[in-house]
């Protein structure tokens, strides 16, 4: 990418962040919108799988017509991602870590008629149906949840995130016969923010606000 374009990306990012005045917020959504207005690069939103296997469940970036990803707010992830402003062409394997508009699934519990125990889950998205059966009967909730998260993301999600989502799944199953895949990922948003925060003491501050007061 030309140095003049890269320089302008930094300028636009700085303008948005100073305007919004949230020093510890990457402002990915607003920066993405501003770059789309500036360059015509379509904005995208979804999940980002970080270098340690954790996931940012809310993130925005731009994608050029040739498939190049421009992540102008990658600095907020610090050492957990690839740099300050990340630019990846479509052939770069790391581009697969950006998942745009994750597919929504409706999850239905199939229970044993006699015991009421959940035997499997039917995952429905449009006309597609996937059946997930626990591969570890000793830990059915972990097994079912790992299957759902793999179905949604295509990634092998780490054990801590699977465990947290499994608790949400078990809680929903005690009250209802179905839920959506977003019911599993929503509790993980706060967990991802807390995880990223642990890597910065004191809390991360955007470069645009680091001048001495």
General form: elongated
* Spatial extent as radius of gyration: 20 Å
Terminal-residue CA separation: 34 Å
Low-confidence stretches: none
Tell me the number of strands.
9
Overall mean confidence score, pLDDT: 94
What class do helices, strands and sheet pairing give? Answer: alpha+beta
Query: What is the topology, as strand order, of the major beta sheet?
Result: 4-3-2-1-5
Structural notes for this entry:
Helix 1 crosses helix 2 and helix 3 (140-153) packs across helix 4. A five-stranded antiparallel sheet has the order 4-3-2-1-5. A four-stranded antiparallel sheet has the order 8-7-6-9. Helices cover 35% and strands 22% of the residues. The model has no long low-confidence stretch (mean pLDDT 94). With 213 residues, the chain is of the alpha+beta class.
């Amino acid at each position: 990418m030309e140095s003049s374009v890269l320089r302008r990306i930094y300028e636009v990012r700085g303008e948005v962040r100073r305007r919004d005045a949230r020093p510890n917020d990457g402002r990915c959504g607003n920066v993405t919108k501003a770059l789309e207005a500036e360059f015509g690069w379509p904005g995208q939103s979804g999940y980002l799988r970080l270098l340690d296997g954790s996931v940012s469940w809310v993130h925005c970036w731009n994608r050029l017509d040739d498939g190049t990803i421009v992540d102008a707010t990658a600095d907020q992830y610090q050492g957990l991602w690839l740099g300050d402003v990340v630019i990846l062409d479509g052939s770069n394997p790391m581009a697969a870590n950006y998942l745009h508009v994750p597919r929504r699934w409706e999850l239905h519990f199939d229970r044993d008629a006699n015991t009421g125990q959940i035997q499997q889950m039917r995952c429905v998205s449009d006309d597609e149906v996937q059946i997930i059966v626990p591969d570890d009967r000793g830990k059915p909730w972990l097994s079912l949840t790992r299957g759902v998260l793999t179905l949604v993301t295509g990634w092998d999600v780490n054990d801590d995130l699977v465990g947290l989502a499994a608790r949400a799944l078990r809680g929903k199953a005690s009250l209802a016969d179905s839920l959506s895949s977003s019911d599993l990922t929503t509790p993980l948003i706060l967990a991802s923010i807390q995880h990223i925060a642990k890597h910065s003491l004191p809390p991360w501050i955007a470069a645009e606000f680091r001048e001495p007061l």
